[in-house]
Amino acid sequence: MSISGTAIAGPVDTFGFGAASIGRGHGGVAIADGGLTVFRNPALLQGLDRAEVSVGYSLNRSAFAQPPPVYWDTNQDGSLDDGDAPLVLNGETSSADGVSLGIARNLGSRVGLALNLFMPTDEFLRLRTSEPSLPTWVMYGNRGKRIEIGVGVGVELFRGVSLGLGTELQARARYRLNGTLDMAAGAGGGDGEDLGGMIEYVRMDVHEMTLDLVPQYVPVAGLHWDLGEMSSTLDGLQMGLAWRSTGGIPTIADIDLQVNGRLNDLGELDPIGIALVIPLEFSVYDHFVPERWSFGAAYQYQKMPRVYVDVHHTRWSEMEISVAHVTESAIRSQIFQVEKGLLVDANQHDAVFKDTLSLNTGAEVFLPDIATSSRMGVVSPVLRCGFGYIPSPLVSQDARTTFLDADRLLFSGGLGVTHADPLNLVPGPISWDAYYSRQHLAKGELKITESDEPRAGAPIDGAAIPISGQLWSAGLQLSVSF
User: Fold this and answer.
1) What is d(CA 322, CA 3) in angstroms, rounded to the nearest whole number?
2) Cβ neighbour number for residue 204 with a 10 Å cutoff
3) Measuring CA to CA, which residue among 173, 456, 440 is closest to residue 322?
4) Is 192 left (phi over 0), alpha (psi -120 to 50) or beta?
5) How far is it, in rounded angstroms, from Cα 263 to Cα 366?
6) What pLDDT score does 194 carry?
7) Judging by DSSP bridges, how do beta strands 247-264 and 237-244 pair with one another?
8) Across-strand partners of 280?
9) What is the DSSP string of 27-57?
C-alpha cells in the first residue's frame, strides 16, 4: 500500500513552467520570456513582436523519507489487535513527467495573446483522496497529475506600462451512482454452523453511473512597468505585479444504494424481506489552488548579467485538503429509520495552515556571441542559475491526523542557445533551453502522541515519523519565432 497523497495546486506551481524561468529559479514576474508567461504575469505578453511556438518535455520526480510501519486493521476483521500485521507504507511517488506547450502571437505592436499548457504523460487527471490518519504528504501526492491550461492577453496601456488578464482552466466534478444490492439467506442452505453456507445469492445491479466535469475559470491579472521607458537613468529596471484568484476541483459524489434482503426457510413462518435505502453524498475539494499575490523586479545594465527577485504572498490559510467528507446521509427502510445526526463522518480533522511569503531569485549571464560559418549564423548563449525559499504553511494539527510537510530550498541552473534557422523555414530565431532544478525539504520528524490504545495510522511502538525529501526536474525546450 502506498501513502495516500493529496493534490494541492498543480505541476506548474510545483515544478515551474518555461525552461528559461525554471533555470533561473522558477521566477521572473518582471521578465518576459516570449509567450511563456501566462502563469506568471500575462502583462508581459505585450512585448511579443512576432508569432511564437514553444514545446518542451520535462522529467518531474519526487521522493520522501520512508515512514515506519503503522497500526492498521490489515486483516479486515473490524478491530485493531495483535492479529493485525503492521502496515508498511511506501515513501516513493510516481513520476509527473509532462509536455509543455506555448502558442503566442502579437496583434500589432501593443497587444499579445498566448496559450500555455502542461500535459502530464502518465495521467490526464487523477482525483484521489487522502486517509488523514495515515502519514500523508499534504502538499504533494498526485499534485502533478493533471493538465494545466492558461490563456492570457497583454496590452500596453501607455509607454512603459502594460496590463495583462488571463485565466487558468479548472473543473468542477459530480459523480453519481445508483444501484441495488440483493441478498438472500435461508436456514436450509447450511447446517446452522456454517454461516457462509446460509447465503443463497448476492446480486449487485448498478443502474447508472455518471461523471460530469464542468469547466470553471481562475482569473489572473498582472501589471508590468518598464521604468527605463520613463527615465534613462532607470534604463534596465523593470517591475511586475501579478494576482491569481482561488480555485480548485470541487467534487461531489452522490451514491444512492438500495439493499434488499430476504430470509427464506423459516419453518412455518413466511419469508421475511427487508429493504434499506441508503443515500450518501460525499464532498472532496481536490487540487486546491490558493490565491496568490506576486511582486517582482528585474535589472540589467547594458550587457551585464540580468538579476531578478520575486516575492509571493500565498493564502494557504484557506486550505482545502483532499479528504472525502460525508455531507448528507441517511438509512431508510419500512421497519426503521436512522436519523442524519447518528451517522458521523469519520474523516473529520482540524489542521491549521497559514499564509506564506516565498522568495525566488536568480540571474542570467549573456555570454559573447559566437559567429559561425554555417547557416545557423550567430549563436547567442546564456547561462542561468537561481534559488528559492518556499516555507511550509502547515502550522498544527490534531491527534486524528498525520499530515507531513516542511520548508523547501530550491536550486536550479540552465543553459540557453539562440540561432538562425539553418533550413530557412522561418524568419525568426530558434531557441534551445535546457534546465535542471532540485528542491530539498528540511529534515525533521513528527512524534505522535502516545495513548493507552493504539490509534490506526500511528507508528508501531511510538516511533517518530521522519520528515525529509526532494523534488527534482530536468527538461529541454524548443522555441521557434515566425
Assistant:
1) 14
2) 10
3) 173
4) left
5) 83
6) 53
7) unpaired
8) 255, 329
9) --TT---TT--TTT-GGGGGG--S-EEEEEE
Residue 169, all three cell numbers: 482552466
The grid coordinates listed for 188 are 436450509
Record the cell numbers describing residue 166, joined without a space.
Answer: 488571463
Return the number of other C-beta atoms located less than 10 Å from residue 82's C-beta: 5
Q: What distance in Å separates the CA atoms of residue 159 and residue 110, rounded to the nearest whole number?
A: 10
CA 361 to each of CA 9, 29, 409, 412: distance values in angstroms, whole numbers, following the listed order: 21, 11, 12, 10
Which residue type is seen at 454?
P
Cβ(26)–Cβ(389) below 8 Å: no
Q: How far apart are CA 42 and CA 155, in angstroms?
A: 9
Q: Is residue 1 scored above 70 in pLDDT?
A: no
Q: Which three cell numbers stand for residue 413?
A: 541552473
For residue 69, CA distances in Å to 73, 129, 265 come to: 13, 21, 48
CA distances from 132 to 121, 144, 174, 320, 445 (A): 28, 20, 23, 13, 17
- pTM for the model stands at 0.84
pLDDT tens per residue, range 407-418: 999 999 999 999
Q: Is the pLDDT of residue 210 over 70?
A: yes
> Are 472 and 436 within 8 A, CB to CB?
yes
Residues 114, 38 contacting (CB under 8 angstroms): yes
- Rounded to whole angstroms, how far apart are CA atoms 116 and 224? 19
- Which residues are CB-neighbours of 293 under 8 A, at least 6 positions away? 241, 242, 243, 312, 313
d(CA 117, CA 133): 35
In this structure, the number of other CB atoms found within 10 A of the CB of residue 31 comes to: 25
Rounded Cα–Cα distance for residues 134 and 469 (Å)? 18
The residue assigned the cell 510545483 is 14
Structural domains in the chain, sorted by start: 11-169+218-245+291-325+353-481 (2.40.160.60)
Question: 381: which 3 cell numbers?
Answer: 548563449
Rg of the chain, C-alpha, whole Å: 28
d(CA 317, CA 356): 9
Task: Read off the C-alpha cell for 56.
Answer: 518542451
